[in-house]
Amino acid sequence: MANNAREFEYTQDDFDFLRKISNQHSGILVPDDKFDMFYSRLSKRVRLLGFTRFKQYCDYLQHHPEQEFTEFINAVTTNLTSFFREKHHFDYLAETVLPELLKKNQAQRQIKVWSAGCSTGEEPYSLAMTLLENVPSGWDVKILATDLDTNVLATAAEGIYALERVTSIGEQRLKRWFQKGVGAQSRKARARADLRRIIHFKQLNLMQDWPMQGVFDVIFCRNVLIYFDRDTKARLVNRYAGLLRQGGHLFIGHSESLHQIDVPFMLVGHTIYRKTDV
């Protein structure tokens, strides 16, 4: 049933079509209560394309995916993040994981971290600060930061944030790792080159092939698993295990768990897992 109070005609059939193709592409489950959210997030696209009904947008998306599909996925992907979100993860990384890696990886003097679902970049920049503050110079420190949404990746790669978003990291860190803007940019700050140079941002659909070579010491995949069904979670986490060194760590979101999922990890902290022998 369409709601006549809306700017655009929008029906349950439209919503079902849109969430079906979103799920087919990304694996993300879209529950019934996201009906209004889909309308809100896609109305801009419908308006921009000059349509009056969501049915027209559905038809356009179906017949012109090369022009519209990326815009569609960008619009319906959730991107909520902040610097040092779930601070206990970064504390554990600094106090427990990194000292262990400095001993274990002494021969190659390299540490590799993957931020899967990096959104607008606050997580990988928080990881970069933690690593550079705790790893001696002369080590090769690399962070791969991936996301499905190309728009948020562009923001992340630029590394420019409103001052109110970065002041939460504390004055000392702000002075060390960010450069405040001047003039028209005075209410913004940019991550310094030391942070940006160790992060490689790349678009990636977690449900498709992964081009990465080699293995990681740490993977952050936080507030991503919550969108998938049990079987998809198990497949994804087992794929992570395949790219983690033995004893490597997986960090997931505060409302997520690997409980009763058949994966080679043991819980070592609050939503912190360590890869076990298989």
TrEMBL record:
Question: What Pfam families does this protein's entry cite?
Answer: CheR, CheR_N
**Cross-referenced Gene3D superfamilies, in alphabetical order?**
Chemotaxis receptor methyltransferase CheR, N-terminal domain, Vaccinia Virus protein VP39
Reaction(s) catalysed by this chain, per the record, are:
L-glutamyl-[protein] + S-adenosyl-L-methionine = [protein]-L-glutamate 5-O-methyl ester + S-adenosyl-L-homocysteine
Task: Using the record's annotation, list all stretches that form the CheR-type methyltransferase domain.
Answer: 3-278
User: What keywords are annotated for this sequence in UniProt?
Assistant: Methyltransferase, S-adenosyl-L-methionine, Transferase
Report the domain of life of the source organism. Bacteria
The UniProt record lists the EC number as 2.1.1.80
Q: What is the role of this chain?
A: Methylation of the membrane-bound methyl-accepting chemotaxis proteins (MCP) to form gamma-glutamyl methyl ester residues in MCP.
Q: What protein name applies here? A: Chemotaxis protein methyltransferase
Q: From which organism does this entry originate?
A: Methylomonas rapida
